[in-house]
Amino acid sequence: xxxxxxxxxxxxxxxxxxxxxxxxxxxxxxxxxxxxxxxxxxxxxxxxxxxxxxxxxxxxxxxxxxxxxxxxxxxxxxxxxxxxxxxxxxxxxxxxxxxxxxxxxxxxxxxxxxxxxxxxxxxxxxxxxxxxxxxxxxxxxxxxxxxxxxxxxxxxxxxxxxxxxxxxxxxxxxxxxxxxxxxxxxxxxxxxxxxxxxxxxxxxxxxxxxxxxxxxxxxxxxxxxxxxxxxxxxxxxxxxxxxxxxxxxxxxxxxxxxxxxxxxxxxxxxxxxxxxxxxxxxxxxxxxxxxxxxxxxxxxxxxxxxxxxxxxxxxxxxxxxxxxxxxxxxxxxxxxxxxxxxxxxxxxxxxxxxxxxxxxxxxxxxxxxxxxxxxxxxxxxxxxxxxxxxxxxxxxxxxxxxxxxxxxxxxxxxxxxxxxxxxxxxxxxxxxxxxxxxxxxxxxxxxxxxxxxxxxxxxxxxxxxxxxxxxxxxxxxxxxxxxxxxxxxxxxxxxxxxxxxxxxxxxxxxxxxxxxxxxxxxxxxxxxxxxxxxxxxxxxxxxxxxxxxxxxxxxxxxxxxxxxxxxxxxxxxxxxxxxxxxxxxxxxxxxxxxxxxxxxxxxxxxxxxxxxxxxxxxxxxxxxxxxxxxxxxxxxxxxxxxxxxxxxxxxxxxxxxxxxxxxxxxxxxxxxxxxxxxxxxxxxxxxxxxxxxxxxxxxxxxxxxxxxxxxxxxxxxxxxxxxxxxxxxxxxxxxxxxxxxxxxxxxxxxxxxxxxxxxxxxxxxxxxxxxxxxxxxxxxxxxxxxxxxxxxxxxxxxxxxxxxxxxxxxxxxxxxxxxxxxxxxxxxxxxxxxxxxxxxxxxxxxxxxxxxxxxxxxxxxxxxxxxxxxxxxxxxxxxxxxxxxxxxxxxxxxxxxxxxxxxxxxxxxxxxxxxxxxxxxxxxxxx
Length: 927
Fold this sequence. Notes:
Layout: H1 25-28, E1 48-50, H2 56-60, E2 68-72, E3 82-89, H3 94-104, E4 108-117, E5 126-134, H4 144-159, E6 164-165, E7 177-179, H5 191-200, H6 209-222, H7 233-262, E8 266-270, H8 280-287, H9 290-300, H10 304-308, H11 320-334, E9 339-344, E10 352-356, E11 359-363, E12 376-387, E13 390-396, E14 399-405, E15 408-420, E16 427-437, H12 439-447, H13 451-462, H14 475-503, H15 510-513, E17 514-519, H16 525-537, H17 542-552, E18 553-556, E19 567-569, H18 570-576, H19 578-599, H20 603-609, E20 612-613, E21 619-621, H21 622-629, E22 632-635, H22 638-648, H23 650-655, E23 660-662, H24 669-675, H25 678-688, H26 710-735, E24 744-749, H27 758-773, H28 777-780, E25 786-791, H29 799-816, E26 825-830, H30 835-841, E27 847-850, H31 862-868, E28 872-875, H32 881-888, E29 894-895, H33 903-909, H34 917-926
Parallel strand pairs: 1-7, 8-9, 8-17, 9-16, 17-18, 18-22, 22-23, 24-25, 24-27, 25-26, 27-28, 28-29
Antiparallel strand pairs: 2-3, 3-5, 4-5, 6-7, 10-11, 12-15, 13-14, 15-16, 19-21, 20-21
Helix pairs in contact: 3-4, 6-7, 6-9, 7-8, 8-24, 12-13, 14-16, 16-17, 16-19, 18-19, 25-26, 27-29, 27-34
């Protein structure tokens, strides 16, 4: 085996300062299922921290026993390891410090020997320890530069130094070992106080089974307030979650301190939805302590998997856009970006789906009833958010300026959710906002005896963050949705600008330190809000503020059809946000005047490209606002990008082709293999000989070398069988339908919508049922038994989607109770589909259907989740499926239906097409 040169520290945290690179788009819009690490290189993560000191005094003293480190590659009997001999003063925890450094550097300890020397000098015992290490590929490390960096990292960790110690070049952004020192605190603290604090908090929490058990039991007694001699599974889960969170918070604090010191350009990801799923397993795995917790719990009489099932899903989103946001946060943390996510902390989420008599019924999702141990309420992080009122002119510096006098103010309170990266100490923040009433309003009402009004004010404020996507068919619904959008961006931008002003006073530096990513049009009011803050509050002139705005925003659109673009009625905006309407009008005026110079007086095109739509209902086109003010606009697949250029935003593309790009959506293998399918994860690691694929998914290509291995096939089948058994048990418990594990599990789980064509799937199931019913008994033995599984929610106001659910349940009732069909065909509708259900269904699926009408799916990430779990795809050439087909080959999937360019012609021929006899029979069944 040939040795490779391993660059131990290679900076990935680069923050470009040029206008063209003002956005993180080139690095940020990474398809999260292809995290772009070099395949043969070891990248050591940034700002790795360790609390290595036994005491502050010890770190400040001068030791008489010098640490020595010798590195040798001269052992001919072991050509695959490098010997590292360390001689140092012994102290509690030092071996753990050294092994942690090796782990941080991505090195494997193959074996080790240790000797102790009582005469080491300085009155203390020394040890001489020899570590035989290899790189992540099992090779000896022979590159001189890499060896020197290993030696420096060990010296820095063992003997330390004040403040932060970096390994690598001084220009490297964020790479190195951060050692906490008492010199880190500044201000008026006395030295005694500083040393006392650091003496009490000088090292990280331990993760050995005994320490974990004590932490869990302490949380049972002191956090959950239950007796440690009597507590149930849910209480054990709560204690376990807080124990894991303690370790998250250590890394989280160090991450924030690191980035505050480094002051890099930060990515701010603004999204109305984050479908995070359960946090326990994902956090424990990313922290690298899942197995330690499992062992510790087993000795206490609990199973990690059982306790993980006690956690509910955070109801913060719906569908692919929301889950994409969650995967993006996981990837940003893993790839060491200085990123923040911002969203809303919905009290009830979307809704909990209940099926009664086959119909969908919506009930509030009380996901916060039992608390959320993963969030930290930041009662000191609150911002006022204003609505309604009037705009007046006032004198300012010899001129006039606009002043917004709001009619209503609510408070935005921050709730932080730490997001850990995998294989790194980087832990970033998802900050969610909850709406609370203004203290001033409440106290005025109470003090005047108007208790009813005080309660109404409280309910009115809290409604803003109560429900995800209120029904906007009424004026009140439209107003509430607009309130949600502005509340979210106003609080987020106040937080972002406050953070910037902590370190900077000149807003010309703003584009060099801030990149704002708009996830669809929902956060687009951030553009007008930044202009308002810069002009009205920071007193920048209009042109200077506009130049800043155009450098900081990038826009991801998930829209496929022009008619699906979001519009806000002007009369509603004028009432709720009068100053923002003025700003949008001013932006549009300047933009149209400039546009006339570019394209002339083509009034039809000017009308189409205007931010303001003059029609029966005068409206603001939010997508147009986002495109005009963003430096980058990206679609979410190659097919989607072509639709944007040729259909949805054709006029804008012809004007600004350099703005448009595409970044195909992705999913994280950490959630969709490691967490949801641990058996498959173990199998992959075994056959690849490494766990590096958990960070670099491209390494999965190494399985191709084992494609013909019968042992791998057998193990794969066993993994699939176990997953199908889990799913079958869930189906029986949930619906009472007993299904055969030997049957093909045919799955379609996604949001219920006409273009996703669950209706077509149900009609196909009816046709299959009809064929089986009319078969001779001898022919039925040739039929492959099939269990059809459908799941998803319909929007409350989407009547056709609701009827599709009813049809599905009616067909299931008929088929599942027909003795002639038996186990040859079953149909199951899974209610209340969410991330946790997906983690159960996806690993057990044999076939997954992605049959949207070609040209209607922007990307579609569900197919990726099924595919990476070894499931076959039945799919149309739509969204990301086209790129998947190119990657895996047409022979490895089942293509279905018309292509995108064929759909318009078929629609025109629709009324004249002859209905096939089989379809007519299916329709008669339905009628």
